[in-house]
Amino acid sequence: MTANAAARPALARQMWPLYAAAFTTAFGAHGIAANLGGFSADAVTSLMVLGGLLALYDGAEVLLKPVFGTLADRIGARPVLIGGLVAFAAASAVYALTDSPGWLWAARLGQGVGASAFSPSASALVARLNPAAKHGRAFGSYGFYKSIGYTLGPLLGGVLVWAGGLRLLFTVMAVLAATVATWAALAVPHVAPLPRTRQTLADLARQLTAPAFLHPTAALAGATAALSVGVGFLPVSGRAAGLGTVATGAAVSVLALYAAIVQPKAGRALDTGRITARTGITIGLLTTAAGLACAMLPGLAGVLTAAALIGVGTGLITP
Predict the structure, then answer these.
(1) What is the pTM of this model?
(2) What is the per-residue pLDDT for 39?
(3) 3-state SS, one letter per residue, for the chain
């Protein structure tokens, strides 16, 4: 056996826990968000509380990802990956064991903190463990398993909530994250931090205020907001239309599925010059807006049309 042939199975063993982490963060984000307002006895019934719980998770990710990114630069991505997964598992177990509305807030915040640590660390390790010539394939696989989590999360979450309420869903989350943490500890090697280039606050301010950064970032923020609203509130519309948790979960899975299908196609069109970034963003924003408007239509047709259009629109904007 050649050295290259021996190296391929070793690299595959190192990559699988990272793919599992990608699935975990996507499943945790959409699986729970899409079912917080479901039919179970412990579901959230207030729209204000539902919005707060959705914002709590996403807000923790927005604020803490740079912090954990800096920490990973100092001590390496592997310990931040494992620590984030352990924190996600512990936070999920909190609500699974207590079944208290107050602890639901703490659990959702803890999940956001854990995801903000292990999600970027996993993608960083994908880059470090693969040569530059294979980054496309490696990140394609990473994105594929993340898309599976986004697509199946609402549907599988709906089945779990139907079977045992939110506590069962949080229990499965805790077990999944703990399993992936153990797997990563056994299979993912230590990767030394890269030397860092010093950057002043003035350098950072110039980068953050440049139009080339602000315009696409604002569009991406809009897409992220629409995605979060779609995942969290379309099930509420479905419930008002008389749909059960499995049906509403399947509707949100439609959103994730369309986004997963459109995103790579839009990326290839952008790479080959068949579409410009400005055109793609504009069409994506208009399509997303149409999807949000369709959410006001009554019944299953409104929910499915909104899910499909929001998925297509966000899938166009992201690349």
Answers:
(1) 0.75
(2) 56
(3) CCHHHHHHHHHHHHHHHHHHHHHHHHHHHHHHHCCCCCCCCCCCCCHHHHHHHHHHHHHHHHHHHHHHHHHHHHHCHHHHHHHHHHHHHHHHHHHHHHCCHHHHHHHHHHHHHHHHHHHHHHHHHHHHHCCHHHHHHHHHHHHHHHHHHHHHHHHHHHHHHHHHHHHHHHHHHHHHHHHHHHHHHHHCCCCCCCCCCCCCHHHHHHHHHCHHHHHHHHHHHHHHHHHHHHHHHHHHHHHHCCCCHHHHHHHHHHHHHHHHHHHHHHHHHHHCCCCCHHHHHHHHHHHHHHHHHHCCCCHHHHHHHHHHHHHHHHHHHCC
